[in-house]
Specification:
single chain; 195 residues; mainly alpha
């Protein structure tokens, strides 16, 4: 199979070529060694869903995280209700926590795991929401020094796809993925001249 260099996605950057898939990848794409395919707007490979998160399923991944939060909150509510309505006879010398651990070790373990999962789901959802608002992928955030398109003329980090929080979020909510259109950035010389 031969690579078509007349493709509109070819920008002349040799890192766009995928030696495994033999294609010209769009700029924000990456080859996933686990899935053995190139993923457009590659975010990360998620072991929980056993798939890559990218342009075509980032919305589904965000819904998955929100459903995880809802499930753990529901589980915590049911567990607390069960323990709260349990007729207990706690003596003045022992605490409610000690009673719960000794009399209901399964419920205590469930509540511990539920809170652990809730914290994890909240952190992941917060990270994804922040990256959606910035129009940045997890891969780009973690490896920003490796990608030349994420550096401005002065060499510092610059996200050319950031259209502002409101536009990034609106575009994601309407289309299910972030926009790949680069924002118009002033050059370093224009910035220096204005100052």
């Amino acid at each position: 199979m031969e690579i078509d260099f007349s493709s509109s996605t070819w920008t002349g950057n040799w890192s766009q070529l995928c030696p495994t898939c033999k294609i010209i990848r769009p700029v924000r794409s990456k080859h996933c060694p686990t899935c053995k395919r190139c993923v457009e707007q590659f975010d990360h490979h998620c072991p929980w869903i056993s798939n890559c998160v990218g342009k075509r399923n980032k919305w589904d991944f965000l819904v998955f995280l929100c459903m995880g939060i809802a499930t753990t909150l529901l589980g915590a509510a049911v567990g607390l209700h069960r323990l709260w309505t349990e007729p207990i006879s706690v003596s003045s010398s022992e605490s409610w926590t000690h009673f719960m651990v000794t009399k209901h070790p399964g419920a205590a373990l469930f509540m511990f795991m539920d809170v652990f999962l809730l914290i994890g789901a909240l952190i992941l959802t917060g990270a994804q929401a922040t990256q959606i608002a910035r129009n940045l992928t997890t891969n780009e955030a973690a490896n920003q020094s490796r990608y030349a398109y994420l550096r401005g003329p002065d060499g510092r980090f610059r996200n050319p796809y950031n259209q502002g929080c409101q536009r990034n979020c609106a575009y994601f909510l309407v289309n299910g993925y972030n926009n790949d259109q680069e924002a118009a950035w002033p050059t370093l010389q224009q910035t220096v001249q204005r100052s």
